[in-house]
Design goal:
Keywords: DNA-binding. This is XRE family transcriptional regulator. It comes from Ureibacillus yapensis. It contains 22 helices and no strands. It is an all-alpha fold and about 450 residues long. Helix content is about 70%, strand content about 0%.
Length: about 450
Amino acid sequence: MESSKFNRIKNVFDCSDNCYNMERGDCMNSLGERIKQFRKRKKMTLAEVAGDRLTKGMLSLIENGKAQPSMESLRYIAERVGVDVSDLLDDGDIEELRTLLMEIEEQYKSIFHPYEPKAKAKLVRMREKILRKKEELQGKKYEEIRLLDYFTRIDAILNGEQEELTMFDVIGFYEKIHAYSRMIDCYAFLSGLAYTRNDYKIALQFMQDAEQKIQPYRHLIDFMAMLDLHYLLTVLYTAVDDPVNTQKHLELALEIAHKHKIYYRMDDFYRFTLIQAIGQGDKEKSSYYLMKLTQHADFTEDKMAISTLAFANAHFANIIEKDYKKVPGFSKYLILDGLAEEEVIDFALLFHMEEAYAYWALDEFKKSLEISESFTIPPYVHHPLDLSIMYRSFAVRALCFYETGNRDAAKSEILFAYHGVTEFPNSIYKKFVQEAYEKIQYGKRVK
C-alpha cells in the first residue's frame, strides 16, 4: 500500500522532526559562535568536526549563522566536540517553553489516528497547555514558532479551520529564521488536510507550492526533508494519475539517497513503488522492489518491516505469481507482538484481505467469506491505490456471495466496490472490480 503504516496518515504528511532551528539574529548567530568556540577550544578543524556526517561547507554555514543543523546533526556536532547539546543551546528564559515543546512533540507523535475520539481528547488537552502560553508566543524564537505550529495543526484537526493564526503565518515565521525544512513540513500538513478529504489535486498543489517556495534555499535544506518532499510528490502525482512526474520525483529521491548514502524513507519508496508496479502488472519491476523490501527487512530486522514484507509477498503471490496456495503460509512471518494496537489491527486487515482473495481464487468461497466477514475500509485510508485494493476485497466478497447463491448480497457488495473505484486511475485492482461487476450483473467470466 502507499505505506505499510497506512494507519499513520499523519506520519505520511507530518514529516519527522528533521531540523531544530534557532531564532534569527543574535540567538541563531550565538549557536554558530558557540559551536565555533568549542571547536577551536578542542583545536579541531572544520573537516575534523564534520567527519563523515556533515560537509565542511555545511558546518561553516552553521557556524556563520547561515544554516541551522537538525537536532540529530546538533547532537552529532556536540559529540564531536565533546560537550552536551545543552552546552550549544542558549537556555536563558526559553527553558520553560522548550520543556513544553518537548512534551507537546512527544504527545503529538504518539497519536496514530488524530480524528478518533481518544486522540481528539488528547489533542484538546495539548491545545489547552499551549493556550496558557499563547500570549508569550510572538513567533520570534524557534520554540515559540514550533508551539504556534502545533497550536495551528491542532486547531485545524479539532475545528476544521484556523481563525486567528494560519499555517501560512507559521510558514512566514519559519522563513524569517531560515527554518526552510520546517516550511516543507507545514506545506505537508496543509497537503495532508486536503488529502484526507480525497482532494488530491489541492493536496498536490500545496506540495508543488512547497517545492517552488524552497527552490532558492535547496542547498540549505536537510536532505531528509528533501526526501520527504519528493516522497509526498511521488505519492500525490500517482494519486492524480501522472506517471511522468511520479517517476521524476522517485528518481530525484533515489539520487539524493544514493549520493549522500541516506536510507531514510527508502522502505516507503520501495513499498509504494512495489504496489504501484503490481497494480500495473509489471512483473519485472515488482520483483525488483520486492527484493529491495526483503533486503531492507533482513538488514533492519524491524518488526514493522518484516510484517510489511509478509503482506507484500502475499500480495505478489496473488496478483503476479497467481500461486494462491502459498499465500496463507506467509502469515507465520507476521510479527505483531510489540506493535501498537492500531498497527496490529491494520496488518491483520491487510493480510486477511490477501487470504480472502487466495481462497476465492481456489474456489473456497465459504472460507473466503468467513475471513472477509468483518472487512471495512478504515477512515484514514485515502490514496486511490490503497482504496482500489480495499474495494477489490469487497468485489471478492461479492463474487463469493454470487458463487454461493446469495445474489442480493453479491449485487449490494459489487455496487459498493464498483462505484468506489469509478474515478480512480486504471490499475489491476480497478479492472478486477469492473470485471466482477460485469460477471455479477451480466454473467461474464472473471479470473
